[in-house]
Amino acid sequence: MNARFTIPKFRLPAIVARLGGRLPQWPHALALVAGLNAALKMKLLPESELALLEDKLFRVRVNDTGGEASYTYRDGLFRPVFKPQCEPDLAFAANLSAYLQLLARQEDPDTLFFNRELEITGDTELGLMVKNMLDAIDWPRLPLFASP
Fold it and tell me: CB–CB of 4/104 below 8 Å?
């Protein structure tokens, strides 16, 4: 029997964000870019839309961990931006639980946005295009638990 795990809504204690904000942020950008480039290699991202991301600056902030990652898409790859010189074209901010719910497809971006659990700022048209692109991804199904 395969029980589906539900990610609860939670918020980490404020001290986590205070400590996390003092740590180097470059590992977050490297990890995020590695994941995005893996999705590219697996052909999960619609190639027709990627040209619209060229040279745009993106930021993902995890409010309750103090983590932040900035990146861009250039010459066919996602690339980290360690010291952004300007405001991002598109920025996302949410608590860790909201991002986990998105990844698990337990919640959709619209619901989180309208419930004020996901903040999206910047270019509205670019935001809608990225949201639609992410919604169109057919994520591979992985078993929750391996059978003995």
Answer: no
Structure tokens at 27: 């590992």
Distance CA 42, CA 140 (A): 10
Q: Is the separation of the CB atoms in 71 and 79 below 8 Å?
A: yes
Q: How far apart are CA 103 and CA 100, in angstroms?
A: 5
CA geometry: angle at 24 spanning 89 and 41, to 5°? 55
- Asked if 73 and 54 count as a contact pair (C-beta separation under 8 A), the reply is yes
Successive 10-residue mean pLDDT values, the chain, 148 residues: 75 97 95 94 87 96 97 97 96 96 89 94 92 74 49
- Distance in angstroms (rounded) separating the CA atoms of residues 35 and 138: 15
Element (H, E) at 14: helix 14-20
Cα-flanking dihedrals φ and ψ of residue 143, to 5°? Answer: -65, 145
| Edge-to-edge strand ranges of the sheet holding 77-80 | 77-80, 67-74, 57-62, 90-94, 118-122
